[in-house]
Amino acid sequence: MDVGAWLRPRIRLLGGAGVVGLVVGVVATVAYALYQGDATFATSQVFALGALALGFATLGWTGSVFMGQAIETMQTYLSDESDWTEQDSRRAMARIAGFGAGMMVGSVLASFAL
Prior knowledge:
Blueprint: H1 3-36, H2 39-78, H3 86-113
Helix pairs in contact: 1-2, 1-3, 2-3
């Protein structure tokens, strides 16, 4: 198995979401610091929102791994027309996790500039 071929799409998924989160974290920290007038408070609030997104995504990814197959089987037996799959759920949670981590890093980087 080629590890690089397996790893590249996963890095692209997390990295792309992380870059977006980083930009949002910097912009949100600067904007909130200008609005609030307190850079330390703005940094801590934006960092906390990023941590919340990261925590939610970690919990959601774990739930997808543990219960994904059971939910897909249940949908088959109930003739549910949903397009939900375990793989799509894990991918969505990975994007949210990357975004949250990027937001946390962005808020810290913005605090150095403030």
